[in-house]
Structures are given as structure tokens and as C-alpha cells.
């Protein structure tokens, strides 16, 4: 590339050339020609595509200015003026070869210098405008990238530019955003739910999973019990999320409470506790009637506020996994804490941090409106309809291949094989995932050894390592309008727009609420002994219309369209909420009824491994107000 010649330098060289003595006019003409050539070649690369009519006219005056990439007005007009001077001296229009020396009058030299200075000044003004416009365009593009091109609404304007000879031409003006950069940076894209809820817990909470406090009688709860620490008139809970052995609750103010197991900081706060000394009698027994059973750690068993979010943070969406917790703000930012696990133990929170003790911002994620967390992986849905996945990817639950030697790369949120800008909903099971696109199709990927993805693979049916490696359409759901999906370890369920509940996957523990003998033989996969193992195609649960379902590891808690709670599946730890008389395996949907829940309209449910949560509208509350 030839050396760059500035406009001012070009003007100085031309003026100096005309001011030389007659003896050096041949050298002067050569200098002028060199400036013209360098100027044209340089501006051909650097100049914007937009042309000005005055420049086009200047180009017509000489064959030298034939490049389609227009130079600046100063250089081009200098070229035109110089070409005229050279033509008078040499009688040639093209100054590509040095002209013969000829005397030039002082008047001509003065006129040429004055004209050159005027054009240079005009060109300097144009250059300042162009530079300013370029910087503003670059800033606008940066804002567009930051906001996903969705927050900017741009309009095209035209501006009239005066040419060097007084002629007007029209060129595109800089794009202007209707929304300021500061407003865009803090714009809200989601909001906190307004309906305050009663929260009910049941199941086994030997490790503080129930969040009912440290009392010994809060360890095993066989029927739903109202959580007195999360009353609507005191805390005002509007959403809950259950992980493997911990829980999160979102208040109407956008604050997050946590409880449960905290050995890997899934609670996002410190819970170290030294129990008080017990009085022991002469016979070696304490004065407690608990048969030596210790109370729970009050800092873990009692829902407490996470106080380490930045001031002013408003959380609108929460999700919990095994030892990982995620929260989304009203502006689409994502915070996380805890850690991800894999088959070898702790995988890590990110590439540099093994366990994250308090909420920390995940800076690469923006405009997130929904998250779903499996056992050890996360899906994040953006406002634009794109999905990011991160965490443990050993079972292809991230929708992309994660090589064992570089498995920490899975901790980096990335997009994968889903259609871009088309996803409206995501859901996760323990080791598999789902997404619903705008056209209503359901996509699944991840571990599939029990058909939990809803995709039947006859060649690998029942094999422990059977996976769906990339997002694949679930053909058995294409005729339904799915509005919600939940999944456990080896089974999945979906609610349709019409209230049908579709289930598929493992059924040998009552997980599906269906009698295998009533199902089509070709849809039931059996083991070598002939025992039914799983349902390969989605089938509807009969007789009851449902509006919501929450899947635990091997059981389910569902809400009917009438606001009643039903449960089925494995209930050996009282996680089905049906009381001490209930069987360990509940084979069909059974209504949950007791004094605490009587007359309460249930709207939400969630479940972990050995405990469950129900959320209902308090009878004295309407739309979140007393």
C-alpha cells in the first residue's frame, strides 16, 4: 500500500511547487503529479462510499480522477486545478509524465495558492463532520450489540450538503436512536409477579430441605404444612424453586430467600453454626424428649434473605439444581452461586472458581428472560429467542459435545443447535433438556436411556449411555399445543393448551401415573424379563385436566384446572404428601387433601428428591393485597 498523504501535506507540496524558481519547474510539476497520484490512491481506500456531486464534477475535469472511490474535496480540487495548470504548460491533459518547464506569472501562483487554501479549509470542515459521524455510528453499533439490536429503533434522515462550488447534494445522515444509551442499559424486560402465595412443604427434611425451621418435628412432614417463615403478609413470596436438597423463594420486592443443604454454597450465604451445649443428667441423658436427636441448623432450616446482591437489584426469575442456584434480574442480567457437579465430583462454578459462595454476575449473559436448571446444567432464554447452555455436559444435556479433557469449557454459556431467535420456552430434567419454538414444536436432547426425551431409538433402547446429542424435534408432541414442560430424572411431562397432561419415559415406579397394561404394546419398552420399563411415546393421563406439573426425581405434584393438587410416583419419603397410610408407590394421580390446604386454590408445585412444595392463593388475599 502506498504511503498515506494528508490533505494539508498535499496542499503544502502543491503550493511550494508553484513558489519555486523557474529553474525547478520540471521538478515542481513532478511533485504535483506525485501528490495527485498518492492522494487518489490513498483516498480510494479510506474515503466513505457516499459521493458528493461537486467531487464528481471535479473528477470529470481530468482523466487522473477516474477512480470510483472518491477522494476528498481538497485533494480532488487541487488535482483539477493542478491539471489545468499542467495542461497550459505542456498542452497535455494527463500529467502522468513530467511536463516541460515554463514560466508562471506571480498572479497565477497567488490565485492558485488562494484557491487551494479555500478548498483545503472546506475539506477540513467536511473531514471533521465525517469523522464525527463515523464515531457516532461506531457508538451506535456498540449499543446495538450490547442490547441485542432489539432496544434500538432507528430512523433514516437526509441532509443537504453544500459542495465546494455551491451546489447542493443529498447524502444519508447519521442514524439516530430514539432511546438513550443510559435508558437502554437499565431498561426492564421482566417484572416481579404480584400474587403473594402460601407456601406448603412436605416430605423428609433431615437436612433442612423443608425450610420449616430447626424444630425436630420439622424433619419429617407427611402432609402439606404451611411455612410460617414465608407468610404472605410478612414476606410476600410470589415464586419458589426447588433443587435436589435446597430451595429458593422470591419475594414481591424482588428479593431471594434460601434454605436447605449448603455444603457447596447453594444457599448463597454463610450458614456456619455452633450448637449450644446441652445439659446432661446424672444418668447421661439430656433433658430433651427427642431421644438424643439434634435440632437442625437454624441458619439452614429457616428461609433467610440473601443479602449480597448489589444494591437496587430486582430479581424476577429463580431456579435451583443439585448444588447450583440461578437468579435473573428485571433487566435480564444473570447471577449464579454454588457449583456444578459431574461423575467425578465437583466440576466447578466456572473455569477459575470451584465453588462460588455468594451470588456473582455472569457478565456474558444479557437480556435473559427465563432460566431452567437441571441437576447440574442451566438453560437461559433471551428476549430475542436464543438459548444459552452451560454446566456439566457429560450426557449431552448442553446440546453440544463436551470433550472430557476440556470439560471445563462446558461451564462457559454458549448457544448451540436450536433455531436462532425462535425459542419461547425452555425446561430441564435431571440430565436432559427441552425447548419450545414459536411454531409450537418441542425439541429435546440429552440422556435418553429411558426414553425421557420422548424420542425412541430402537437400536439403543435401554442402554445406559443412550443420548440424543443435539436438539431434535419430538414427533409425538407435534399435534399438541404445549404450554409447559417439567421433567424428573428419567421421566417427563407436558401440559397442553387444552389441559391435557402428557407423560413419557420411565414407568416402573409409578412415575407416569398410567397402568402399563392399558397402553399400546408397541409403545411400551420391556426388559429381558418382560417387565415394563418405559413409555417411548407421549400419552395422556386420563380423566383429569391439569394446568401445571412439577416433576421430582421419581414423583410428580400436579395442579388441576380447578386448583386441586394431585401426586403420584415414588413416595417412600412422604414426598407425595398423602400421609402415613400411603403406599411407597402411588400408581395413579391422587388428590392431596388435609386441613392445611382445604379451601386453598393451588397454582404452583415443585419437587426435589425426597420433598415437595405447593403454592396456593391465600383466601384473604386478592392479587397480592390484603
UniProtKB/TrEMBL annotation:
UniProt KW keywords: Guanine-nucleotide releasing factor, Repeat
Record GO terms (molecular function): guanyl-nucleotide exchange factor activity
Ranges annotated as biased composition (Acidic residues): 282-294
Composition skew (Low complexity), residue ranges: 102-114
UniProt xrefs under InterPro entries: Ran_GTPase-activating (IPR051553), RCC1-like_dom (IPR058923), RCC1/BLIP-II (IPR009091), Reg_chr_condens (IPR000408)
Keyword Metal-binding: no
Protein name: RCC1-like domain-containing protein
Amino acid at each position: 500500500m502506498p504511503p498515506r498523504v494528508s490533505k494539508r501535506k498535499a496542499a503544502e507540496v502543491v503550493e511550494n511547487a508553484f513558489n519555486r524558481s523557474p529553474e525547478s519547474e520540471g521538478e515542481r510539476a513532478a511533485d504535483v503529479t506525485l501528490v495527485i497520484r498518492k492522494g487518489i490512491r490513498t483516498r480510494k481506500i479510506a474515503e466513505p462510499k457516499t459521493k458528493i456531486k461537486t467531487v464528481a464534477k471535479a473528477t470529470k475535469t481530468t482523466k487522473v480522477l477516474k477512480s470510483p472511490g472518491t477522494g476528498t474535496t481538497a485533494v480532488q480540487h487541487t488535482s483539477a486545478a493542478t491539471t489545468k495548470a499542467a495542461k497550459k504548460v505542456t498542452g497535455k491533459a494527463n500529467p502522468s509524465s513530467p511536463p516541460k518547464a515554463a514560466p508562471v506569472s506571480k498572479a497565477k501562483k497567488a490565485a492558485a495558492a488562494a484557491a487551494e487554501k479555500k478548498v483545503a479549509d472546506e475539506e477540513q470542515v467536511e473531514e471533521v463532520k465525517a469523522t464525527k459521524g463515523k464515531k457516532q455510528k461506531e457508538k451506535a453499533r456498540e449499543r446495538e450489540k450490547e442490547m441485542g439490536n432489539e432496544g434500538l429503533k432507528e430512523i433514516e434522515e437526509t441532509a443537504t450538503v453544500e459542495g465546494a462550488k455551491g451546489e447542493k447534494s443529498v447524502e444519508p445522515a447519521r442514524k439516530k436512536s430514539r432511546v438513550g444509551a443510559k435508558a437502554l442499559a437499565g431498561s426492564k424486560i421482566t417484572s416481579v409477579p404480584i400474587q403473594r402465595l402460601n407456601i406448603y412443604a412436605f416430605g423428609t427434611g433431615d437436612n433442612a430441605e423443608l425450610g420449616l425451621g430447626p424444630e425436630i418435628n420439622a424433619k419429617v412432614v407427611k402432609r402439606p404444612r404451611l411455612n410460617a417463615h414465608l407468610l404472605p403478609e410478612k414476606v410476600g413470596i410470589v415464586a419458589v424453586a426447588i433443587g435436589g436438597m435446597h430451595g429458593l423463594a422470591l419475594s414481591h420486592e424482588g428479593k431471594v430467600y434460601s434454605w436447605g443443604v449448603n455444603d457447596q454454597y447453594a444457599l448463597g450465604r454463610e450458614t456456619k453454626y455452633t450448637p449450644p451445649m446441652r445439659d446432661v443428667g446424672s444418668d447421661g441423658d439430656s433433658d430433651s424428649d427427642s431421644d438424643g436427636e439434634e435440632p437442625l441448623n437454624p441458619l439452614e432450616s429457616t428461609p433467610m434473605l440473601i443479602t449480597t446482591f448489589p444494591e437496587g437489584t430486582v430479581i424476577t426469575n429463580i431456579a435451583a439444581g443439585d448444588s447450583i442456584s440461578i437468579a435473573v434480574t428485571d433487566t435480564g442480567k444473570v447471577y449464579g452461586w454454588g457449583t456444578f457437579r459431574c461423575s467425578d465430583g465437583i466440576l466447578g462454578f466456572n473455569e477459575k472458581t470451584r465453588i462460588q459462595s455468594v451470588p456473582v454476575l455472569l457478565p456474558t449473559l444479557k437480556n435473559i428472560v427465563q432460566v431452567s436448571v437441571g441437576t447440574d446444567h442451566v438453560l437461559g432464554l433471551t428476549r430475542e429467542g436464543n438459548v444459552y447452555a452451560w454446566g456439566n455436559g457429560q450426557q449431552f444435556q448442553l446440546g453440544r459435545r463436551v470433550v472430557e479433557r476440556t470439560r471445563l469449557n462446558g461451564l462457559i454459556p454458549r448457544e448451540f443447535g436450536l433455531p436462532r431467535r425462535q425459542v419461547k420456552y425452555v425446561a430441564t430434567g435431571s440430565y436432559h433438556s427441552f425447548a419450545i419454538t414459536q411454531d409450537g414444536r418441542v425439541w429435546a436432547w440429552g440422556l435418553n436411556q429411558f426414553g425421557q426425551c420422548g424420542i425412541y431409538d430402537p437400536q439403543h433402547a435401554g442402554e445406559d449411555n443412550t443420548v440424543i446429542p443435539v436438539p431434535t424435534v419430538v414427533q409425538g408432541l407435534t399435534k399438541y399445543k404445549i404450554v409447559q414442560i417439567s421433567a424428573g430424572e428419567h421421566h417427563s411431562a407436558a401440559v397442553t393448551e387444552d389441559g391435557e397432561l402428557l407423560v413419557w419415559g420411565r414407568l416402573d415406579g409409578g412415575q407416569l401415573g398410567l397402568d402399563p397394561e392399558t397402553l399400546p404394546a408397541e409403545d411400551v419398552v420391556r426388559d429381558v424379563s418382560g417387565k415394563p420399563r418405559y413409555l417411548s411415546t407421549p400419552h395422556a393421563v386420563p380423566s383429569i385436566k391439569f394446568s401445571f406439573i412439577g416433576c421430582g426425581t421419581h414423583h410428580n405434584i400436579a395442579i388441576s384446572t380447578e386448583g386441586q393438587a394431585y401426586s403420584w410416583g415414588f413416595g417412600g419419603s412422604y414426598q407425595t404428601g398423602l400421609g402415613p397410610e400411603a403406599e411407597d408407590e402411588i400408581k395413579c394421580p391422587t388428590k392431596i387433601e388435609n386441613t392445611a390446604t382445604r379451601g386453598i386454590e393451588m397454582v404452583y408445585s415443585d419437587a426435589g428428591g425426597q420433598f415437595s412444595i405447593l403454592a396456593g392463593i391465600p383466601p384473604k388475599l386478592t392479587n397480592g393485597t390484603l
